[in-house]
Amino acid sequence: MEAVLKWLSDNQQIIYIVILMIFVGIEVIGRVPSVLHTPLMSGANAIHGVVIIGAIIVMGKADAGNYVALVLGFLAVVLGTLNVVGGFVVTDRMLEMFKSKKK
Predict the structure, then answer these.
(1) Which residues contact 84 (CB under 8 A, 6 or more apart)?
(2) Residues near 48 by Cβ (< 8 Å), separated by ≥ 6?
(3) CB 51 within 8 A of CB 83
(4) Residue 56: which residues within 8 A CB-CB, separation 6 or more?
(5) Tens digits of per-residue pLDDT, 21-78?
(6) 52 in Cβ contact with 81 (< 8 Å)
(7) Per the confidence metrics, is the pTM higher than 0.90?
(8) Rg (CA), the chain
C-alpha cells in the first residue's frame, strides 16, 4: 500500500493532467454535431498509426525471452493496422457519397 501511495505522490501532476484531459475530451466530443462525428472518427482512426510505431519500438526493445511484450506488441501492430485501414476505408466511403453520379 505504501508503494502505491508513494507512486501517487510522485506522479501527482501527471494524474491531474490526465484527469483534466478526460474532462476536456468529454466536452469536446460532446459538442461535436452528429453530422461530423463519423468523419472525425475516421480521421482519428487513421492517426492511430502512432500506435503502430510505438508497438514496433516496444517489440524492437523487448528481450527475446519476454513473450508478453512480444505478443502484446504484435497484437498492437495488428489492431493498429486494422484501425488505420478501417479509418481510410470509412473516409473513402464517405467521400464517395459526395461525388456526382456518373450517367
Answers:
(1) 45, 46, 48, 49, 52
(2) 80, 83, 84, 87
(3) yes
(4) 73, 77
(5) 999 988 887 887 777 767 777 777 767 788 889 889 988 988 889 899 899 889 989 9
(6) yes
(7) no
(8) 20
